[in-house]
Specification:
By secondary structure, the chain is α+β, with helices and mostly antiparallel strands. It is about 35% helix and about 10% strand. Helix 5 packs across helix 8. The protein starts with a strand and ends with a helix.
Length: about 250
């Protein structure tokens, strides 16, 4: 395939960025999207040009590093991570627009790389269990109902890629935060800090500049791990309970 790529280039966090146009040929439909960008970067290196900076690590849809806006969609046209998106999702002659996540709490560092440390600070504000649980317990020592265990495992699959924020018109991180709060709130170990967790994480969310949730649902539609929208309702319920109890 021959493709036209319109890619956001930005030298550093303080520079003014702009779109650049590139042509690539001999793109195999079996390539991943990131392999296609690797091929472009090899071409740029041969021409003596600065290669395009983009984030990636595992390239197996696990780490969440590879988030890109592709033709205005978080991670592109398929419900998957960018590294698991393959070029067979496009056709010969296509023009593809590639941008970094667009959200104030995710400032651009260079080209397609953004700083997602706001998510780290959200977790640090309450997305953990600090009570002493001792050494690894025997199996079933702390019984968890099957439905709660399954639900906790399901929402714990969030990889923190930021697609929910990038897709949300309000730039809200409510799906990410709701997944973390719901996961811990379903387990017995998470109960002692359940209310303070919700209160502190919501406060940090607002402090970071993420927008409010208006239940549009774009976050869940873009999530590569299919985190359900109702985790936001569970987060709101815990938060309201925390406010009633003076947290």
């Amino acid at each position: 395939m021959k493709l036209t790529l319109k890619i956001w280039r930005q030298a550093n966090a303080s520079a003014t960025g702009e779109m650049h146009t590139y042509q690539v040929g001999d793109v195999s439909p079996d390539m991943s999207f990131l392999e296609m960008l690797d091929m472009l970067n090899e071409q740029l290196n041969e021409q003596g040009e600065e290669p395009i900076a983009f984030d990636s690590d595992c390239r197996e849809g696990i780490c969440g590093m590879c988030g890109l806006m592709i033709n205005g969609q978080a991670h592109g046209p398929e419900v998957t991570t960018t590294c698991q998106l393959h070029m067979r999702s496009f056709t010969d002659g296509d023009t593809i627009t590639i941008e970094p996540w667009r959200a104030d709490p995710f400032p651009v560092l260079k080209d397609l790389c953004v700083d997602r440390s706001a998510f780290d600070r959200l977790i640090q504000s309450g997305g953990f269990i600090s009570v002493n649980t001792g050494s690894a317990p025997d199996a079933h020592a702390a019984p968890v109902a099957k439905d709660k265990a399954d639900r906790a495992f399901s929402v714990a699959t969030c990889i923190g890629c930021g697609a929910c924020v990038a897709a949300c018109p309000n730039g809200s991180a409510s799906l990410f935060m709701g997944a973390k709060i719901t996961h811990l709130g379903l387990l017995p170990q998470g109960q002692p800090e359940r209310e303070s967790r919700a209160a502190s994480m919501v406060a940090q969310h607002d402090h970071e500049g993420f927008g409010g949730c208006t239940n549009i649902g774009e976050c869940a539609a873009a999530c590569p791990k299919e985190i359900p929208l109702d985790v936001i309702s569970e987060m709101n319920r815990d938060f309201r309970t925390a406010l009633r109890h003076g947290h």
